[in-house]
From TrEMBL:
PANTHER family xrefs: GLUTAMATE DEHYDROGENASE, GLUTAMATE DEHYDROGENASE 1, MITOCHONDRIAL
Keyword NAD: yes
Gene3D superfamilies per UniProt: Leucine Dehydrogenase, chain A, domain 1, NAD(P)-binding Rossmann-like Domain
Name of the protein this chain belongs to: Glutamate dehydrogenase
Species name: Candidatus Uhrbacteria bacterium CG_4_9_14_3_um_filter_50_9
Top-rank taxon: Bacteria
Active site location: 103 (proton donor)
Family: Belongs to the Glu/Leu/Phe/Val dehydrogenases family.
Keywords, in A-Z order: NAD, Nucleotide-binding, Oxidoreductase
Amino acid sequence: MNNPFENALSQLKRATALTSFDEKFLKRIGHPNRQIRVSIPVEMDDGRLNMFEGYRVQFNNARGPYKGGIRFHQDTDIEEVKALAFWMALKCAVVNIPMGGGKGGVTVNPKELSKGELERLSRGWMRAMADVVGPQKDVPAPDVNTTPQIMQWMSDEFGKITGDTSGAVITGKPLEAGGSEGRGTATAQGGFYVFEALRKRLGLPETCTVAIQGFGNAGQFAAKLWHEAGHKVVAVSDSQSAIRNSAGIDILALIEHKRSTRSVADFAGAETFTSDDVLYEPCDLLIPAALENQIHEGNADRIQAKAILELANGPITPEADDILHAKGTPVVPDILANAGGVTVSTFEWEQNLKGEHWGEEAVFERLKQIMEREAVLIADRAKELNTDLRRAAFVVALERIQEAMK
Ligand code: NAD
């Protein structure tokens, strides 16, 4: 398995070879400002005490407070969090929002916890981190397996400890707890705006067939958006299985099926097959929306999609990038394609700081403007540098961070 942080550094090296950067800047940008590891005691329902390991990596704050989600996953470790924090710094610079990059996590399988245990763990993470986060310091958000409810518990805990009840310490909260309209769907929505802005340049038809890996927050809303826009979602997977139907899947019915059975398997009118094989479906657009390292040296040549849009963070390894590039399969990189989430998160932070509440239409209008503008700018830069979209996005982001660090 590739180390995600090594992948990130390898991407950095490839991009910075294209144009000149200050040497001292290049040395600094490969290292996080701060890495925090904490032990979180949680009393389990049966009275036992369990210890969990929690993390926060504050990568770079030259452009604003650190910003990035918190992941609860059994495989999460400091290396993964470090890579995700680095990508967040670049991502915020790609969409030009006044935020730096950070990321957090806990090594835990939250599906094995009761609701009470999950709440105590979430509050425990915030208690351990209350000194290092804050509206002007570091503003976390949801990521894999963390929900608006978890954000609300953490926000509440921060308020109890510090007296700051503005909610601006964390984003992705439920609406009634200071959340923003549109935050739930923002990642997929941002990806969709980027897709629309670049569709012709990616060589894709007006109506596309789409395969999606992962059916959580990002994947589910992506399925819904592409489906509602008239594209045909022909295959979808979650961690256990995949389903396919070349005539198109009824996404609203599938969302209901997933809600009631907690799986996409055995959905009526579709064929169930092995989860990982969703990557190899013949389609116009493949959307990885699960975890890192899914497309690697060993399977990249089996991809049949005409283009890939990364809603997940780091789903393609640098070696796979080369194989896809040689095959002529364009990749819209994570730091552009999934930046809608952090953009609307920043809108939420801004609303909390100002005590405002914006309507959904205003949120999406601003999001659309930002995503379209930066997507076109990066595609133009890729053309100018005669390179792929990932390297171009890195160059644009690094130039902006370098400027701020000066
Ligand atoms: P989530 O927990 O809501 O969903 C993850 C989904 O992936 C689940 O359906 C799970 O079953 C599935 N999954 C896990 N392993 C899989 C596998 N091997 N094959 C197929 N499916 C698998 O998480 P999410 O918030 O949707 O995040 C998904 C990805 O998108 C992550 O890489 C995350 O960092 C990225 N992302 C999310 C946001 C956001 O706002 N939620 C923003 C930017 C990036």
